[in-house]
Amino acid sequence: MRTHDNFYFIFIKKLVVISLVAHLTPRIASATPANKISHPNVIVIYTDDQGYGDASCFNKDSQFVTPNIDRLAQEGVLFTDGHCSDTVCTPSRYGLLTGRYSWRTELKRGVFQAERPCLIPDQRMTIASFLREHGYQTAMVGKWHLGMDFPGTRTTRDWSQPVLDMPLDKGFDYFWGIPASMNYGVLAWFEGRFAKVPPTEYTSKKPNKIAIDDYRIMPPYEKLASVKDANTSGNFSGKLEVAPDFIDISCLDRFTTQSIEWMRQRNTDKPFFLYLPYTSPHKPVIPMDRFRGQGEAGAYGEFMIETDWHVGRILDFLEEEEISEDTFILFTSDNGPETTWKKRKELFQHASNGPYREGKRSIYEGGHRVPFIVRWPAGIVSPGRISSSPVCQTDLFATLAEIVGDSLPNNAGEDSQSFLPALTQATIVDRVPMINHSSRGEFAIRDKQWKLVMGSTKKRKQELYDLSNDPGETHNLLETQSERAVALQQKLTRIVRSGRSTQGNPVPNDTPYWDDLFWMTEAEYQQPDQAIQSVEKKTKIHRLASTRRSVFDAFAYINRLPEVPYEDESSEDFSGRIFGRLANQEGRILLKSPPGMSNLAYEGFKTFIQYEGDQRVGNCAACHTLPDFTDGRSHNVQPGMAKVPTTSLRNLNKSAQALRKIIDQKINYAKIKQNGDAPKISDLYSTIQLDQNDVTALVAFIKLLQDVPEQTFRQLILDSKVFDPSGTPE
Fold first, then answer.
1. Which residue segments constitute the domains of the chain, with CATH numbers given?
2. pTM confidence score
């Protein structure tokens, strides 16, 4: 950097810092208080590997200035004790979107690659699906990194087929972005379920000469990757699938431009939710030429300055559209800084981790304490405040639920606590204990200023820190505060076992005991779902999980139907929720014959889930509950017989004639029950009122519960069309 440029940078930096001190000091004057609960627009700007010290409003000694991120703080609330839910990409993104710690899932350590079943199952409520049910338009633009189901294998791709198990299936109406980090395949620009240009070429990471220990993803690319180079998992000796038009340096610009374009084309009569996960400052560190030479922290600082500039583009658009006042913006990062922070501190005297210990992947504060700013002019009192309230990214879900005036179901947002009072009342939130988790599977529990680090399976050495007096975690107080450590361990055990950290009924984690819970035995871990699992084994429920591939599943997939009832939700209420969703889908019904959802089968589906109060009452779903089409229980179903388990209707492999005979028998048993001749038959039979036309329609529907080949399933989705379900059944 030239001398006069360096002087200019320092001068400007001092001005900005002086301004920040003034703005960030709590003041009596305030923005318009949130006297009413509204439905603000919501934008989550999610950076990648940005440390606590990588914004000038968090770091007075920062070697670069971030005026737009600083503006968010000046006009909102800067949280000094904000945390991601884990210390690497995939689990933190899961926690943000679901309000649930990711270690409760199958992902106990590390991250996902691009291609694998999504960590968020379709039945798991997300912020996007919740807000969509409350009238929001929802979009995700940027880096996903939670798993996708690509068509075929690396050697048998058919990019004319749709991508499944991806953002459009997790509550988002619109998706534009890339599947994962750029050190994983597949690299292409995706819009909806398709790559705009298919990733039909291959590449290896190229050296990035401007950054510390870094790489590039840029042409030239290879046309072929030899099959003999592929191992059993499909990886080609480090080669990545890449589209001919893909280049790493374009990500930030394309994500921002596409976000603005989507917002510009939005329905202005409805609020929107935009999830914008950037790829910076994660490797590759690739600032555009216009930002080279800025700041005093090398290419990394330049990359952060570019990131800040794109944040400014978003803010400018909101101002142009005159929607800035009632737009809720959360700015935060998925974890602490990459290990290159050490060299950066040595070379440039820039501390990406701020005053905290370690960085990305670590259980210590530098791994999970991240920038955390909320700007919402219409809802925040005394903007420009610094808040010491402890907050976690999992808390966003409950906060938004409180803003729109609703509560979360018992089986959603289990680790989410609203921090709305910190925004609207300027109070310190008394948060429930927060669980920290590292990429190596290590646990820590934080309760007020106390943090207990549990150690690892290899080094089971506990550490206890008082963060109020020792934020750098340098003095282990375990020996002098052993009773406090025991109490914290007991709280951690309870939170792990109960499946939640917030108030509510216990819910199951997704897996049995795992080794990282070394401080408790497998017997101590016993979960509240043990009895449920036992019933499922006895009744031999047919579970396809993410591999369900029937015509009905394609129909439900396209129309985004609810898959499973909420906790304590009756079958009637669940059926009503499905009816409501269908009514809002404007006839978007899968039609492809053969096979496909015909008008007749659609009538059968409605009859199947209809209950007392409807003209034709099947009430079949009372026992054959979706998605497995069995409730896993036993019922008295015919006179003089003992209770029998409910059979799953999936893959029955019965002819239409045989199905008709079974349904006719059920109708006869219902008539006997209704006449009072068989009081021991289940009361559920009292509501069944079906004629032969209903039977014909039910048979047509049940036949759609037979699995089809995966290629057929994908083609059904690809070829889905809109038809009028009120038309004459075939």
1. 3-201+248-419 (3.40.720.10), 445-528 (3.30.1120.10), 542-718 (1.10.760)
2. 0.78
